Amino acid sequence: QTPKGSCLESVKIAIDTGYRHIDGAFVYFNEHEVGQAIREKIAEGKIKREDIFYCGKLWNTCHPPELVRPTLEKTLKILQLDYVDLYIIELPMAFKPGDAIYPKDENGKFIYHETDLCATWEAMEACKDAGLAKSIGVSNFNRRQLEMILNKPGLKYKPVSNQVECHPYFTQPKLLEFCRQQDIVIVGYSPLGTSRDETWVNVSSPPLLKDPVLNAIGKKYNKTAAQVALRFSIQRGVVVIPKSFNPQRIRENFQIFDFCLTEKEMKEIEALNKNVRYVELLM
Ligand code: A2P
């Protein structure tokens, strides 16, 4: 999903800037570049493998339990790493297994596949036991789907995290509270309101970074709306994975540890919630 080479450069700049958490996936088709960037930085002596936190994802076509470990092994081979720090089920529904990433029938409809999420989870647990993933988690799971895993008889490991859309316009108050109670970390994707690419983003929701409140608060601290949005999330305990392929903005998004929003400002930003997703995942 990135022009050839841009991911390699961006990850290297990010590591030099101080980022250690890298959010990847097989379906981003750039894991080879991420792996190369990490390995180059290790070879340079800039970091050690254990400094990096790499998250990989199990795609929808690979939910059948017998496919889980081979799929993770494929990712590790592409990355040329021995383990991922976190491996997550990318979405709670399955597509027909096979070479097509988005399998469709002759009418252009997605071909789904019936699998048992709990069985998929057991295969994820086995990956952790085998040392291929240090931790395991989920993504785009709602409360009921989380509860299905949490209530599974014989559960060995709870999901450590749930990666979902989360930002000032979609604050996820209920899911955040539930996950807090269950000790599940929320990792917020699209923390800056996405790239507004109309092929997959609901652009009827207004651009987050143009928000007057975020900009006004930013002015006070000499920060941008993006920095305020990121600070807001981390201050409420939500992990952020901002995406940028621009060196200046990669650095900008890291300069969020030298200021603190007041309780009043946090409340003001929380009140911006529109309960509207940018990433609707209509499939
Ligand atoms: P670019 O790669 O040109 O920086 P999200 O993390 O919510 O998915 O948002 C990603 C989008 O936000 C990308 O289009 C990215 O563009 C843009 N972006 C990233 N950082 C900033 C920033 N600090 N200010 C404005 N736009 C940003």
From TrEMBL:
Checking InterPro entries in the record gives: AKR, AKR1D1, Aldo/ket_reductase_CS, NAD(P)_OxRdtase_dom_sf, NADP_OxRdtase_dom
Active-site residue list: Y28
**Residues with site note (Lowers pKa of active site Tyr):** K57
GO biological process terms on file: bile acid biosynthetic process
Which GO molecular function terms does the record list? Delta4-3-oxosteroid 5beta-reductase activity
Enumerate the spans annotated as NADP-dependent oxidoreductase domain: 6-273
The UniProt entry, under PROSITE patterns, shows:
ALDOKETO_REDUCTASE_1 (PS00798), ALDOKETO_REDUCTASE_2 (PS00062), ALDOKETO_REDUCTASE_3 (PS00063)
Q: Which domain of life is it from?
A: Eukaryota
Pfam families (alphabetical): Aldo_ket_red
Annotated substrate binding lies at: H113
Looking up PANTHER family in the UniProt record yields: ALDO/KETO REDUCTASE
**Which family would the database say this protein is a member of?**
Belongs to the aldo/keto reductase family.
Q: What name does UniProt use for this protein?
A: AK1D1 dehydrogenase
**Name of the gene:** Akr1d1
